[in-house]
Structures are given as C-alpha cells and as structure tokens.
C-alpha cells in the first residue's frame, strides 16, 4: 500500500480533505484516502490491528476512550500518537428571514428539557414559544433541530448548554444528577437529526421557524441563508472561540498509529504538514474554512516532530 | 322455440355488458392512472434532478496572463528542478494575486472598494496547483508571462448560474458585491467565460475549499470497476443458483429452507452486507480497504437475492410442455433447460439484472463500512490491479457532496446523479434491448 | 513458481485437453459423430474437467494448509521471551509473515539480494529500515528470533511452493491421461460434464447459504457482547428507544420494529397496487411501443439513488403533507412522517413490483387468454380471474422483493420519517426504523465497545430473525393458496 | 362407410344466422382466407371440412372475432350475425363472444379446479343467482360434455390434470355452460373415443334445436352424421358449400370430390 | 386381469422389444394404471385403444420415463426394453428417450423456427456432420411428417404459428428426425385430414420395417389399418392384448367387445 489511509469523524473530515489535497499537490506522495464514518467508528478501525489492510490515522472530534485504547492494545496497536490541531465552535442559527436570537444556556434548558423549574418546583415543560422562555426572545414556536445522540456535537450540547442551563435555572439542585439534565421533552419540539448539518439546513428550509445546531465552519459557508444566534451575548467566530469567550466549543484530534510511521510512505510527512503553520495556523486554509486554530499549535508541532506517543488517559 | 329472432342485437350493448364494460373501463383507467402516477413521479424527480444538476455541467473560467516570477519560483536562479519543486502551491498564489492586481488597475476594470486579496479569492485555489504543475512540466517557462485559463471560484461560478445574487452576496461571508461587479467587468472584457465543464467528468474529487474543481473521474472509474465485478459474478451465480433450485433440486424441506433464506437475504439491510464484507473480505481474507474488489463482492452478495428471486419467478412461468417437448426428443434435463427454458425465462432474468444492478449502482450504505465512502483523489490503475486500488463510487460521491457545507456542492451532487442515471441507462440498454428480443408469447 | 502461475499452467493443460479430447473422440468414432455416445464437445469438456478440477482443488487445499503447517513448525522458533507484554504469539506470527513477504518485496525491488538474506542478521542490516524503504509495515522493532523465523518461513514457503507446483501439474497431467484413456465412443461424456455443471449449479446455490452463515457469524459475536452489557429482556420488551451519549440508555427494539413494519406497510400500500396495475396495463393493454418505452422508464425509478428520494421527501412531500393534510385535520405538526416516507418509498418500489410482474404475466400462455375471451370474458375479467392466478408465484416473488427492499431502506426513512423512535398509530407522526438505527448507531462518535454502538448488531440480527419468520409465513401462505392451481 | 344423416328435419323454415361477405384473412404475409362468402343457417349444424392448414380454424375464429387477439392477423370483408356486422365499431366483442361460444382445437383448461373451469362463464355472465343454481349449471354442463361421471368425485382437482380427451370434453362443457346462441367447435372430438364422440354428437344435435352450431372436423363420417350443411375449404378458398347430403353424394367441384374420396389432402 | 402373453410361439421371428411387468401408476391418490403386463414386439406396430381417460397416455409415457417429470406421478413394476429394466438406477433416461421417441397428444412445438424444431434432436445427438447433412435430415423428416410441401417456403417461420394439424405433423417430423428405435405416438393423427392421416400411416408402416411403433388411437379403423397388435385398456386395466385381427374380429373379453361395437366408452 503506498498511500496513507485515514478514517473517522465527519467533523474533522473537511479539514482532513483540505490537508490531504494540498499534501498530494505539494509532495511526491499520493494523496491520502480520507474516510468519514464517525469518530467512534474511525477509532475502532484504527484499533483493528497493524498492517496494510488497516488504517493509519483516526480522526476524532472527541478524545479517545479507554475502551478504544484497550481494544488497540489487544490487537497489537500499542503506541498511538494523539494530535490536537484546533477547535470547533458550535452555533445556533435560524433562517435568515426570521428574527435573530440571543440565547443563554438557561433559555435552551427551559425550552427543551423534559422538566423545568417553575416556582421552585420541577414540572413537565410547559413552554410553547421562545417568548415563554425568555420575554426578550421572539414570540415564535419552539422547534429545535439538534444533533442525534450518536454525534459528538450532541455531547457538547448536553454538557455546555443543557448542563449549564440546568445549573443556572436551579434545576440541577432539584434533579440531583447531571445526567438527568440531559432528558429532553418528547412532544416533537426537539428533533434529533441523525444526519449531517446539510440535513439540518434542509430541515430549516422546510420549517422556517425552527432553530438548528451547526458547526461554526458550516455556518460560515452559509451566511447568506442563516442568521446566527449569540450565546451569553457573544457572537460566535473563530476569534471568540479561540479566546474562550464563546462557550460552546470542543477540541479536534487525530490519532496516528505509530507502528505505521516511517513505514507507510508519506505518513510522517502528512502528519507534520497537517500541523504546520501553513495549514493549521490562524491564517491557513483550515482557519479560512472555519477551524479555530489551536493557540498551542507549536507544542503540537514539536510533539509530532519527536513522535511522542500518547500518555495513558488520566 | 321456432322463433329465430335474435335474443339481443349485438349492435346495442345490453345492460349487463354495459356494466361489465364500465368495470372494464374502470380497470383500464386504474392502469392508466397507475402509469400516469409512476410517470409523474419520474418526471417530477427528473425535473428536480436535472434543474438542480445541469448547471454542474457548465463552468466559469477566468483567463489571466500570469508572470512566472523567477524571484518567487526559482529564488537562486539555478533552474534546479529539485529546488523549484520545493516551492509549494502557497508560493504560487501571490503570482495570481499580482496578475489580478494588474487587471484591477486598468481603468475599465477598476472596482471601487475591492482589495486585491479579495479579488484573488475569485480564482479557484486549484489555480495555484495548476500553475505549479505547469511550471514543473515546463521549468524553462519561468520568467515568461503565460496565459492561464483558471477555474473561477464556486461563488463567482454560482453568480452566473443564478445561485448567488447581489443581495445574497451582501450577507455572504465568502463573496462580496464588489467581487461580482469585478466579475461582470471581466466578462465584458472577454476574460471571464462560461463553457462546458469537462472537468466535472474527468477530475478527481476536491476538498471543501474548492468545489469548482471537484469532478467525478475517480468515482466513475470506481463504479465501472465494481459493476464489472457485480455483473460477472452476480448474474452467473444468481442464474445458476436459480436453475438448480427451480429445475434440479428435489422439492424438500432443504430447498424450502434455501428459498426462504434467499427471500430473507433480500430483506437484509444493505449496511449489514457492509458488516459482512468488513468481517470476511477485509478482516478475514485480508483484502485492502477502500478497494473496488471488496465493494464489488459486497454488492454482488447484495444483488444476488434480487436476481435469484426474479430468475426463479420467470423460470416458474415457463410452461412444462416445453420441457416435455425437449425431453421427448432425448435432450437431457440440462439441455432442455439451457436450450429452451432459459431463453424463455430470459426477460425476467434480465429484469432482475436491471433492477439488481440499478440497486447496486446506487448503493452507499454497505460501502460505508469497507472504506469506500472516502475522499479519493488518485485514479485507480487499470484492471486487474486497479480492482485493488482505492476508489470512490458515484453514489458515494453524491453522498459526500450532499454533506458538504459549500452550497456549490449541492449542484454538483445533482450533476453526479445525472451522470449516475446516464451510466445506469447505458449499462441497462443492452439488457433492455436483449429483453425485448426474448419477449414472446406462445 | 507462484500459485498464479501454477493455476495458469493447469488451466492451459486443461484447455489443450479439451481440444485433444474432442478430436480423439472424433477419431475413435472414425469421424462419425453418430457412433459417439455424446457430442464431441462433451468429450473435450470431460478431459478439461478431469485435468483442471482435481489439480485446482489440490492447489486450493494446499494453499490453505501450507501456511498452517509451516507456521506450526516455525512458531517453535519464537521463545516466550520474544512475546512482549500485551502482545501474543499470533501477532508475532503476523509479523513473521509480513516480514517474510516483505523480504520478497525487497528482493523484487532490488533492496536485498538472495545471498544477503541467507546471512541476514540485525547487526549487519537495518531490516526494518530496508522493509520500510519498500513500503512494508512492521509493527515494532524486529527481534532476532523473529527475523530468523521469518527467513526460515520464507525458505520453507518457497520450497513448499515448488512441491505444490510439481504435485499440481502432475495431477493435472494424470487427469488428462486418465480422461483421454476413457475417451471411447461409448463413454458417457455428456453425463460427466453435466454432472460437473450441476455441481457448479449446486455450489452457486450454496453462495446464498454461505452468505447467510456469514451474516449471522459476523453479527453474533458483537450481539453477544451487547447482551452482556444490556439485558436482553429490556432490549426485546422495553417500549422506549432513547440512547444517550454518555450511557444509561433505553434501547428497546419494539418502537423501531413498529416503525419498520408501519413504514414498510405504507410503502407497499402505495407500491403494490400501482405496480401491479402498471404491469397489467403494460402486458395486457399497452401497445408494444408504449410498453417498450414505459417499462424501462419506470425501471429508472429503481435506479435513482435513495438520497434523491430522501431529499424529495424532506423538501417537497413532507411540508406538502403537513400543510395540506396533517395541520388542517389536526393530525400533527411534523413534516417528517410515516406517510411521507411510505409514499416516497412506494414510488421507488413501483418498478420492483411492476417489471417482474409484467414479465411473468407476459409468460402466461396465450391459450389461457383465448380460453377466457372465447367464453365472453372481458379483458379485466380475464386478467383478474385467469391471468393473475396463473402468474401468482411470480407476482408474490415481486412483492417479496419490494417488501424486502422497504424493510432494508435507510435514507428515505431518515429524511422522510425522521429519526425519532415512537410507538404511535398516527401515520402523520415521525417514526423511525430498525435499519436507520443500525446505520446511525454504527457510524457515530460513541466508543465502539458501548451498548449504544453494539446495539446495531443486535438490531441487525433481530431484524434478520424477524424477516425470516415473515418469509416462512409468506411461503406457507403462498403454498396453501397455490395448491388449488397447477 | 358413410352413415346417412338421419337428421332430416324440415329445413325450409331456416333463416340465415351468420353470413360472410368477401372475407379475407392475412397473417402477416400469409393469405389464409381468400374471399369467402357463406351463409350459415340458424338452428342447423354446419360442418367445415378441408385439408389441414386450409383455413378452417382461421375462418371459425373470425366468426367470434377471436382473431382480434392475434397481432399479425388482419381480417377484411363483412361477417353478419342476425344481419348485424360483427366488425362494426359499435359491436362489443365481449358481448359477441358471449353469444358466439367457442371450443378450441387445442384443449385449454384454465389452471383452476374442474368446477371453476365450468363455473367461470356462468359467473362472469351472471347466469346463476346463487351457489346451488351454479352447482346445477356446472353439473348439467359436465353431463352435456359427457364427462360428469368421470369427474364428479374430483370437481376440486385441477382441470390441467385431466387426460387429453377429458380436457377436451371439459372445454366443451365450459363452452356450453354459458348457453351461447352460436357454438363454434374446432375439432371437438379429435381426442375422443367413439362412445364419447357419440355423446358429444348427441349434444350437438340437441343444441341444434335452439342454436346454430359450426363444427370443424376431419372425419367425413362425423360431418355426415351431425351436419345439415357442409363447407369445404381448400387452400384458403371456400370451394363448395351446400347440403351435407349433396356435398357427400354429389359434389360439384372436382377438389371436393377428390377430398371426399381421399385423393387430395 | 390380463397376464403376460405366452403366445410367442406363433411368431418365432419377432422378438420382444418392450415388456412391462406389474406396472402400476399413481397420480397422487388416483390409481391410473393397474398392474399391467404386456410384451411389445420389435418391428411391429402396436395400437393402444380404449376409452378416454383409461390410462393410454399414462402407460405410453412410462415407456420412455416421461412420467419422471410429473411430481405427483409414481410408477412401480418393471418395464424392460431389450431385456433391460429402464427404471434401473444405471439407466440414463436421456439415452433412453433418444432411443424411445415420443409424439405427444397435444402438439407442443418449440417457440422456435420450423427448421430449428426439427433440427434440434439431430443437433443434440450429433446426427449430422455438417449443415448440409442437417438440411437433408430436416427435409427428409418434414417429408416423412407429410408437411414438407406446406412449410418448405417458410422454414424460418415460428413453429407455433402453424395450424393445429400442421403443428401435429411438425411434432411427428421432429420425433422421427432423431431416428429412434421405438416411437411412441399419442394420437398422432387426431388433428389430421384423411390424406395426411394416410401419409402418417404410411410413415408408420415404413418405420415398422426397422423399428417398433406404439400408437394410441381412438379410431378403430386406424388401429385395424396400421397395427399388428392391439392392446385394449379400460379404467387403468389392460383388458386384452393380441393380434389386431383377432381383437377386432374375435375379442375374448366382453368389455373389448362392447368397446369395439361402440357400447362402452
Ligand atoms: N397430471 C395428472 N395429474 C392427475 N391425474 C392425471 C394426470 N394425468 C392424467 N391423470 C388421470 O389419469 C387417468 C389416465 O389419464 P391418461 O392421460 O393416461 O388417459 P388417456 O387414456 O390418455 O385418455 P385420453 O384418451 O383422453 O387422452 C385419467 O383419469 C386422468 O384424469
Ligand atoms: N398465428 C398464425 N400466424 C401465422 N400463420 C398462421 C397462424 N395461424 C395459422 N396460420 C396459417 O394460416 C393457415 C390456415 O391455418 P388454420 O389454423 O386456419 O388451418 P386449419 O384449417 O385449422 O388447419 P388444421 O386442420 O391443421 O387445424 C395455415 O397455413 C397456417 O400455417
Ligand atoms: Mg385448425
Ligand atoms: Mg391421452
Ligand atoms: O462525525 P463526528 O464523529 O465528528 O460526529
């Protein structure tokens, strides 16, 4: 096999293809083959073993899990390199012709949670319109398209929006358990999307009064159709995410099978090229597409150059 | 009794016949309605596919004279190819920017408020790559001014296809009204043209940053390879299995089991065939990831039940007297089947093949698990080695493109569907013609 | 001699055998075909088969057994100390195989020469580097014993290949000779070659069985893992499907099963009548010209990628049904619904029903129609009472095909019916199917070894068993109904 | 050899039931029927005789427009039944065929039970008010078809599992079950033994009291026995038509003579 | 019941070609052939007569094992051809059928051209070395089937577009084209006119000089004309078997007598 093979997160996929394309153009190696399929599936594939019919790199929009590392170990993939190359912002947007919104996590919790606090007591969610949730918001029926439970984005939504809202409204104290904050109403107001952001966009098109959850880069490519909502009065952008002002974001990774380094032609070069300033830097094509560049990129570059394997998860 | 006058005239239709004729008409109308519905659905779908996809076959190009500046491309003037090779595409981008700056400086082309950095964005990022390829192939041209026909970026292209308007550009982060004005001026100056997009059929896929450069070349090859495998495996195996089950197998619980089993396989979700393919062909047999051979084998297994069910149904429909006639002149059962029964069952077999291949050609889910739903830019080599090289497939390309953020990919996805349908028709034409030949009544 | 060359050689011998056998048969009969038991071609085929089949079988068995035998011996060369913690003998043997084939590659690429390999040791050569240079991946640094084992493995393999070539070709030649000696006028060559063809046919029908076994085998392991993490009782009887990212999910199959059956049913309600009427009209009423255009045109519906149907459902049909049907009737607000997905899927399934039914209806002998017309039946009466019953087995096949496709469809359901699992009778509500969930649980972000992912395998296997049951039922019903005919 | 016809009813009152004028039939390029003119009387049995392939079946099929179902078949000229042109646009072939029944040359039972084969016609024409009436019709028809005794115990068995002669009689029973005014029978006794043949001939004679019967036969004896009128076809031409006794005793045309005496085939 | 005949003494030259011993045939529950024993001589024509549905076709189909193709049909007992049991495991039914040809009761031409219909047998048995030999065989067979003149101009036309009698003769031509040693003919002349019938009878007579012919017929006259031996079946039983002249002039069994004189059917 003479080309690098990569699989995993669909969030990372666009970045990986941009890098792969540029890599193929500028190096004498063939362009790597990049597959989507989801972070979990990608890590599983990487851990299937060592050899030409297994992949070299797993893209992941969340950190690798201990169970994956164990699986890798049982299949002889003992050394893995973890590369964090940037951040992904998650935004809330609606149809451009509708009203614009300014949310807080508490608004989302009150709009979508199965149980909310009314007069200090937990009751089944009675809110019908955004204005019921927060008088400052438009009097528009609540309808939200959120990522399905298999998406990493959902995990971020659960943690950074719902849990934060849960705490802010005081529901956490009554519910007692963080996980209970994740329970959503089932009356069709919150719709899980198993597909991708394009499906969410199409659904917004069919339901003009809905609000969808998107990745920052996806939104940036569709600013003529979508109007983005602020969160805690912060407008999402690569800058506000990088500075940490905009709260809803997550790191992006890829994992390299060390046994293949120096064996699969171009693998080392690809990894280095990916994290180079030319690509992943704040002015590189990845940032242009919507990646929030990692402020600690140079540390990553050093790590890649040294081939430092990953330390055990703590 | 002796009265010979006719009971009824046949020229006047009696009540009961009238009622029956109404029923007949109604029945016939149902048929017409059914066909009309099917045709309407077809026309509706076709219209939406074609209206969405036809623009993909046109592409906007910008012709520019670019000075291949030795100061950038061959810094030490050594003309050493190794060193020229070191200059990456990032090094070529400024040359394009410079060339545009020159155009922008011309009074008739000047647009107020348009920065040269933004003007450079009107040219596809593929432009730099094309220039680099050109220079590496013709290093002696460094220092000359060369005219390049660059792809316009997706948004500019979209402007001439109605996807982007001045209004939408106001709100669009990736394009500004000034850029559009400049494009219009370039057009007036004859530097910007729209022409047929051969690249759409021949180029490989491109990344999110350059939808205008994305093409179907690799996907078409991958689909061809897979269909060759499917056709040459699924058709013979399917027909052979059906012949055995229908004509030779003793009718007992075991053949019942096989029959039920085959119907059941038809109901297995296609992704499960992907799981099977991953387990058996890649993990067990050690075949490579992302390769058409694995895709073809998986699709073969998926198509088999369709062909078997169709073939058996049409073998059943051949009247036994034909078999008797052949056996009666001393043909063996095998000869009777191959000489007489099979030709009569051919229309049904071909129908099964048509439907089975259509399904196989359009299927994405099983390919998901064997690594074929991927970004592949290298063309697979010629068969048989090519069967083992990574490749994409047409439905995969459609699936990928519909998931991308840039709206230009939506149009390409529809264009890819048109290609897929044309491919399907080409593939099926032979089958359709053959089927018409074999159709007969007796 | 590589395995490929051996196979080619055997086939070449067999092809020669075909021609020799044929002409020998002709000669033995003095050029008079009538003296032969079978047509001369059959004698040729018999020689072909005798030459090729045993030799190829031996080659195949040899190719499978050889690595096992050799590995058995070689694995003694690996000492327990060579096996690192967390690793296993199997993994090391995989390395041995990879290194030895890598050495071959290196020789071909000119990076190593045969004499160099004989004296190869880790002190004088950076083996890993050399192999990497020719693009062969090796898991970790090579230990001396592993290298020795690899070299030995390579040598033994080469020797075994040589024996194999000799043995296979010898068998082919023996088969050739035996078959030729059998070639006499009264030799039943046709029976031999037909028996061979028949075994091919039997083998082909085993492909279907093997596929089934393969599917079950590839699902059962992870399914059992799933049931170790998640109680079977809950999976089969829990009425909610609500997977969570972080665990603690409800994974009841019932709502998914309901959705599957409901959506498929709705799709068939559209597809079967329309498809049947299309078939009837095309085969009984339409002119051959209309038929030759409409039939392939309808078949295009089966070739449109399902994603197009999905978008059609999502963007056009869904909102339409919601605005003009669901909302005015107060039946719901959702633009995704069972009805949307069923309707759109029904369109896709039309050709599955129509084309095959058309073929079998067309195959009903004309004398049946004549008999009915002669009694004064109208065309529709003839169709309903004579032709459809006569064509029933084929039509059932077509419907089974359509139903199967409906159950297995993903994209249309995701976009048309949504992704929410629900138990409801209202066809205008969003629901989802087993297949959709198999795809979404299998491709996602959660870790693989979690019940949320593994449930996909359990769903696949359950669906397999359920459809098996439905098929048995269908066969039983058809049998019972069909008995009065034929 | 020939039995003299003992069916000498007075034939002066007969009226014309079917008349053919300049009928021509082509199968593609084959000219199968050449300009045939004939008047077939009501309440008589007319026999069509002639060598194999001369066009008897073709002409017979014209009379109830069964040739409509053969794509390549073209019929020109007029055929009148009760003075009405059956090729008229207003004519409903379905109604015509209900009135003009047919027994085909090759027995073609439906792949249904024996009972359903016979009940099929009465059902579609609504001849029976209820099940017991239908049972009666079926029994009566099977009796008339001279097959009741053989099949009465297995009415539910498939009609296709009968012997050749039984199938033929089943088809006769099926045709008479709809009570047509004209019955066209294409070699109805070809597979029947003498006794069964006699029974069918009896049936034909019985039908004649009300209806017209046209029968194609290769047996001169049979023609002589059952028919009052005989038409002799040769190579697509209607060579001679007249009273059966006259045709067999005193043929006008040489070809008829030759055929009857066994010199041309 | 009628038992195996011991009357070989009178005809010492003739040898037994086919002998059936205790043959029983069941179709599911129907007992179609009941314990039949018969010896059929070489180089003779044997006629099977009997009322419709008595089992003639069934027995005929046993002789070349065509009944194998009917699922529900069970045959017991032995049938020997040239002393060899054809139901023996070692017997290849294909070879048997090449040796024992058959003309079916219902004409069943292949939906192919007339030429291919006839050429099919010779092709699969390799009877012709080249195209012109094949042409010869086809012409000769069609001539023997008394249909050459009618079809010689349209050998490429489909066999299914022929008239009933033409199809029947085509099937006869197809059967003789393979030159079988025994020819089983199930009512081969049922759709034929007298002349064609005479020609086929001539053919049968000609075949007799080398082969055995078994013919099922409903025409007593035909049986008397062409056969040397006659077997009378009734309700599945072989009632009587003997020289044709003896059967027709001096039947031993009452049932035979009744059938011949037209009293049972
Ligand atoms: N395929 C079949 N399935 C069931 N019963 C059958 C089948 N074929 C024939 N029979 C029955 O077996 C008996 C003998 O049939 P056979 O065809 O041998 O009669 P036959 O003597 O040839 O009569 P015919 O002169 O009418 O052709 C009949 O009662 C018939 O109904
Ligand atoms: N479907 C057809 N296509 C073409 N030619 C046909 C067709 N049917 C009959 N013919 C031809 O038309 C002529 C008359 O055929 P027809 O069936 O009327 O003969 P027939 O008198 O009934 O003969 P038979 O006594 O053999 O049944 C024949 O030459 C025949 O070959
Ligand atoms: Mg006829
Ligand atoms: Mg019979
Ligand atoms: O595809 P994801 O793993 O990024 O959701």
TrEMBL record, chain B:
It comes from the Bacteria. Its main location: membrane. It is found in: Cell inner membrane; Cell membrane. CDD domains: TM_PBP2. GO terms for biological process: phosphate ion transmembrane transport. GO terms for molecular function: phosphate transmembrane transporter activity. The keyword Cytoplasm does not apply. This is Phosphate transport system permease protein PstA. It comes from Shimia haliotis.
UniProtKB/TrEMBL annotation, chain C:
Pfam families: BPD_transp_1, DUF3708. PROSITE patterns: ABC_TM1 (PS50928). Part of the binding-protein-dependent transport system for phosphate; probably responsible for the translocation of the substrate across the membrane. Residues 257-474 form the ABC transmembrane type-1 domain. It is found in: Cell inner membrane; Cell membrane. Its main location: membrane. It comes from the Bacteria. One of its GO terms (biological process) is phosphate ion transport. It comes from Shimia haliotis. One of its GO terms (cellular component) is plasma membrane. GO terms for molecular function: phosphate transmembrane transporter activity. This is Phosphate transport system permease protein. Keywords: Cell inner membrane, Cell membrane, Membrane, Phosphate transport, Transmembrane, Transmembrane helix, Transport. It is a multi-pass membrane protein. The keyword Acetylation does not apply. Belongs to the binding-protein-dependent transport system permease family. CysTW subfamily. The chain crosses the membrane at residues 41-65, 162-180, 200-221, 261-282, 302-325, 337-357, 454-478.
TrEMBL record, chains D, E:
SMART domains: AAA (SM00382). Its main location: membrane. One of its GO terms (molecular function) is ATP binding. GO terms for cellular component: plasma membrane. Keywords: ATP-binding, Cell membrane, Membrane, Nucleotide-binding, Phosphate transport, Translocase, Transport. Residues 18-260 form the ABC transporter domain. It is found in: Cell inner membrane. CDD domains: ABC_PstB_phosphate_transporter. It is a peripheral membrane protein. GO terms for biological process: phosphate ion transmembrane transport. InterPro entries: AAA+_ATPase, ABC_transporter-like_ATP-bd, ABC_transporter-like_CS, P-loop_NTPase, PstB-like. NCBIfam families: 3a0107s01c2. Part of the ABC transporter complex PstSACB involved in phosphate import. Responsible for energy coupling to the transport system. PANTHER family: ABC TRANSPORTER I FAMILY MEMBER 17. This is Phosphate ABC transporter ATP-binding protein, PhoT family. It comes from Shimia haliotis.
């Amino acid at each position: 096999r003479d080309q690098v093979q990569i699989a995993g997160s669909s969030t990372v996929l666009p970045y990986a293809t941009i890098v792969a394309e540029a890599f193929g153009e500028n190096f004498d190696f063939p362009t790597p083959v990049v597959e989507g399929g989801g972070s979990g599936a990608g890590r599983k594939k990487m851990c299937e073993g060592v050899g030409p019919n297994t992949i070299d790199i797993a893209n992941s929009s969340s950190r690798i899990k201990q169970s994956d590392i164990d699986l890798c170990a049982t299949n002889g993939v003992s050394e893995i390199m973890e590369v964090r190359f940037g951040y992904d912002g998650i935004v809330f947007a609606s149809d451009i012709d509708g009203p614009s919104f300014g949310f807080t996590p508490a608004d989302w919790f009150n709009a979508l949670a199965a149980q909310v606090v009314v007069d200090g007591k937990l009751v089944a969610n009675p809110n019908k319109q955004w204005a019921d949730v927060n008088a400052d918001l438009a009097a528009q029926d609540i309808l939200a398209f959120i990522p399905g439970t298999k998406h990493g984005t959902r995990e971020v939504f659960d943690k950074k929006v719902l849990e934060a809202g849960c705490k802010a409204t005081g529901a956490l104290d009554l519910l007692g358990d963080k996980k209970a904050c994740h329970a959503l109403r089932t009356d069709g107001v919150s719709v899980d999307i198993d597909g991708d952001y394009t499906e969410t966009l199409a659904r917004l098109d069919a339901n003009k009064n809905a609000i969808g959850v998107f990745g920052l880069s996806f939104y940036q490519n569709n600013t003529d159709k979508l109007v983005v909502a602020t969160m805690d009065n912060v407008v999402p952008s690569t800058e506000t995410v990088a500075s940490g002002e905009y709260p809803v974001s997550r790191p992006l990774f890829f994992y390299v099978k060390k046994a293949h380094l120096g064996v699969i032609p171009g693998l080392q070069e690809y990894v280095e090229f990916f994290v180079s300033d030319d690509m992943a830097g704040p002015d590189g094509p990845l940032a242009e597409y919507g990646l929030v560049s990692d402020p600690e990129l140079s540390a990553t570059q050093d790590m890649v150059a040294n081939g430092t394997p990953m330390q055990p998860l703590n | 009794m002796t009265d010979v006058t006719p009971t009824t005239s046949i020229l006047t239709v009696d009540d009961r016949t009238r009622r029956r004729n109404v029923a007949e008409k109604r029945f016939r109308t149902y048929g017409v309605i059914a066909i009309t519905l099917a045709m309407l659905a077809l026309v509706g779908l076709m219209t939406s596919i074609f209206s969405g996809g036809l623009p993909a076959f046109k592409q906007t190009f910008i012709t520019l004279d670019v000075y291949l500046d030795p100061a950038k491309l061959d810094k030490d003037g050594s003309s050493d190819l190794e060193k020229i090779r070191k200059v990456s595409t990032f090094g070529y981008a400024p040359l394009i920017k410079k060339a545009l700056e020159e155009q922008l400086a011309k009074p008739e082309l000047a647009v107020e408020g348009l920065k040269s950095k933004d003007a450079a964005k009107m040219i596809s990022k593929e432009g730099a790559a094309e220039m680099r390829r050109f220079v590496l192939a013709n290093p002696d041209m460094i220092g000359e001014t060369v005219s390049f026909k660059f792809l316009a970026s997706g948004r500019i292209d979209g402007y001439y296809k109605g996807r982007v308007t001045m209004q939408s550009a106001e709100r669009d982060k990736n394009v500004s009204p000034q850029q559009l004005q400049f494009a219009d001026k370039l057009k007036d100056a004859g530097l910007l043209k729209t022409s047929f997009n051969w690249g759409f059929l021949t180029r490989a896929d491109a990344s999110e940053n350059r939808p205008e450069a994305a093409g179907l070349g690799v996907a078409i090859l991958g689909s061809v390879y897979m269909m060759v495998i499917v056709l040459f495996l699924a058709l013979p195996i399917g027909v052979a299995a059906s012949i055995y089950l229908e004509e030779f197998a003793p009718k007992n619980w075991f053949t019942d089991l096989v029959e039920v089993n085959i119907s059941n396989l038809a109901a297995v979700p296609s992704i499960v065939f992907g799981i099977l393919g991953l387990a058996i062909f890649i993990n067990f047999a050690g075949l490579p990831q992302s390769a058409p051979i694995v895709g073809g084998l998986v699709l073969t297994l998926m198509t088999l039940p369709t062909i078997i069910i169709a073939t058996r149904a049409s073998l059943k429909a051949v009247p036994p007297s034909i078999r008797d006639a052949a056996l009666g002149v001393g043909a063996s059962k095998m000869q009777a089947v191959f000489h007489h029964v099979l030709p009569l069952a051919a229309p049904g077999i071909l129908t099964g093949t048509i439907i089975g291949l259509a399904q196989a050609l359009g299927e994405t889910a099983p390919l998901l698990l064997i690594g074929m739903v991927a970004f592949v830019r290298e063309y697979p080599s010629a068969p048989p080695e090519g069967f083992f090289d990574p490749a994409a497939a047409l439905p995969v390309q459609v699936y990928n493109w519909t998931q991308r953020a840039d709206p230009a990919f939506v149009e390409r996805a529809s264009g890819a569907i048109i290609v897929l349908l044309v491919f399907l028709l080409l593939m099926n034409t032979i089958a359709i013609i053959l089927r018409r030949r074999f159709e007969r009544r007796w | 001699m590589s395995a490929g060359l051996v196979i080619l050689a055997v086939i070449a011998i067999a092809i020669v055998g075909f021609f020799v056998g044929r002409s020998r048969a002709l000669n033995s009969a003095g050029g008079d075909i009538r003296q032969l038991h079978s047509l001369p071609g059959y004698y040729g085929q018999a020689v072909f088969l005798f030459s090729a089949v045993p030799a190829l079988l031996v080659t195949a068995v040899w190719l499978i057994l050889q690595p096992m035998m050799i590995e058995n011996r070689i694995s003694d060369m690996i000492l327990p100390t060579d096996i690192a913690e967390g690793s296993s003998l199997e993994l090391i043997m995989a390395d041995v195989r990879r290194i030895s084939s890598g050495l071959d590659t290196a020789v071909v690429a000119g990076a190593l020469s045969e004499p160099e390999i004989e004296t190869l040791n880790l002190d004088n050569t950076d083996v890993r580097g050399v192999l990497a240079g020719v693009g062969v991946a090796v898991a970790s640094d090579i230990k001396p014993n592993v290298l020795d084992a690899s070299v030995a493995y390579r040598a033994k393999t080469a020797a075994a290949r040589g024996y194999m070539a000799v043995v296979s070709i010898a068998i082919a030649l023996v088969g050739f000779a035996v078959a030729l000696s059998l070639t006499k006028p009264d030799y039943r060559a046709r029976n031999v070659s037909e028996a061979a063809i028949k075994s091919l046919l039997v083998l082909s029908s085993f492909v279907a069985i093997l596929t089934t076994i393969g599917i079950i085998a590839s699902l059962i392991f992870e399914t059992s893992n799933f049931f170790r993490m998640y109680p079977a009782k809950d999976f089969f009887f829990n009425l909610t499907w609500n997977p969570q990212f972080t665990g603690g999910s409800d994974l009841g199959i019932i709502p998914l099963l309901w959705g599957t059956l409901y959506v498929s049913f709705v799709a068939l309600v559209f597809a079967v009548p329309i498809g049947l009427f299309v078939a009837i009209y095309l085969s009984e009423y339409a002119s051959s010209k209309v038929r030759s255009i409409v039939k392939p045109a309808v078949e295009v519906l089966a070739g449109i990628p399902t994603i197009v149907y999905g978008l059609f459902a999502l963007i056009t049909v869904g909102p339409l049904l919601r605005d003009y049907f669901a909302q005015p009737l107060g039946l719901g607000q959702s633009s995704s619904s069972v009805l949307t997905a069923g309707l759109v899927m029904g369109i896709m399934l039309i050709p599955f029903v129509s084309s095959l039914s058309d073929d079998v209806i067309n195959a009903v002998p004309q004398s049946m129609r004549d008999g009915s017309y002669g009694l004064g039946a109208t065309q529709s009466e003839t169709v309903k009472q004579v032709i459809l019953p006569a064509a029933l087995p084929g039509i059932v096949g077509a419907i089974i095909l359509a139903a199967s496709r409906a159950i297995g469809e993903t994209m249309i359901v995701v976009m048309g019916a949504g992704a929410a699992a629900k138990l409801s009778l209202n066809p205008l509500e969003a629901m989802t199917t087993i297949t959709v969930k198999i795809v979404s649980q299998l491709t996602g972000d959660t870790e693989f070894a979690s019940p949320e992912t593994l449930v996909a395998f359990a769903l696949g296997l359950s669906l397999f068993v359920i459809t098996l049951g439905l098929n048995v039922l269908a066969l039983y019903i058809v049998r019972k109904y069909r008995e009065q005919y034929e | 050899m020939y039995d003299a016809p003992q069916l000498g009813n007075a034939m002066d009152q007969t009226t014309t039931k079917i008349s053919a004028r300049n009928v021509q039939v082509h199968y593609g390029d084959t000219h199968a029927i050449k300009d045939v003119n004939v008047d077939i009387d009501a309440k008589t049995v007319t026999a069509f005789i002639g060598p194999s392939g001369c066009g008897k079946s073709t002409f017979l099929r014209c009379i109830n427009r069964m040739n409509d179902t053969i794509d390549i078949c073209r019929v020109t000229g007029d055929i009148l039944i009760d003075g009405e042109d059956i090729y008229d646009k207003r004519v409903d072939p379905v109604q015509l065929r209900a009135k003009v029944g047919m027994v085909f040359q090759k027995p073609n039972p439906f792949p249904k039970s024996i009972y359903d084969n016979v009940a099929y016609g009465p059902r579609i024409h609504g001849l029976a008010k209820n099940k017991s009436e239908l049972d009666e019709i079926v029994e009566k028809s099977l009796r008339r078809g001279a097959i009741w005794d053989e099949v009465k115990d297995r009415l539910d068995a498939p009609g296709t599992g009968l012997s050749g002669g039984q199938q033929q009689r089943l088809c006769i029973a099926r045709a008479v079950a709809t009570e047509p005014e004209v019955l066209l029978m294409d070699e109805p006794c070809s597979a029947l033994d003498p006794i069964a043949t006699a029974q069918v001939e009896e049936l034909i004679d019985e039908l004649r009291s009300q209806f017209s019967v046209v029968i194609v036969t290769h047996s001169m004896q049979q023609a002589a026995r059952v028919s009052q009128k005989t038409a002799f076809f040769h190579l697509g031409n209607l060579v001679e038509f007249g009273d059966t006794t006259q045709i067999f005793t005193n043929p006008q045309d040489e070809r008829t003579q030759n055929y009857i005496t066994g010199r041309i085939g």
